[in-house]
Specification:
The protein is an alpha+beta fold and about 100 residues long. It has one domain (about 1-95): Alpha-Beta Plaits (2-Layer Sandwich), CATH 3.30.70.100. The protein is built from 4 helices and 4 strands. The chain has a 4-stranded antiparallel β-sheet. The longest helix has 14 residues, at about 15-30. The protein is globular. It starts with a strand and ends with a strand. About 15% of the residues are buried.
């Protein structure tokens, strides 16, 4: 089992475009033995301390294996709509981990 944490930073005013991409991408996760464990949209009140910019959303996803995650990334339907992600996201940080 692997875990992917993603910090997502949005282009101002492109939130609806980002949501269009998420409406396509999130349902595909389960096709590749994945689960969306958390989807958080933090605000300034939820941070005790931070040294980086507050992300628009934080996702925690698990996949049964790294090949499952790689197959999700290569999914043809997802790739057809990457232009929505590119239009709406300024930056995303992926952190891969394993349960200890």
């Amino acid at each position: 089992m692997i875990y992917i944490t993603q910090l997502i930073y949005i282009v101002a005013g492109q939130e609806s475009v980002f949501h269009q991409f998420e409406d396509i991408a999130i349902p595909l996760i389960s096709k590749y033995n994945g689960r969306l464990l958390l989807r958080v949209r933090p605000d300034d009140k939820t941070f005790i301390e931070h040294q980086i910019e507050r992300p628009y959303e934080i996702h925690l996803v698990s996949f049964d294996s790294e090949p499952d995650f790689k197959n999700f990334i290569k999914d043809e339907e997802r790739k057809r709509f990457l232009y929505l992600k590119e239009q709406s996201i300024t930056e995303s940080i992926l952190i891969q981990g394993r349960k200890l």
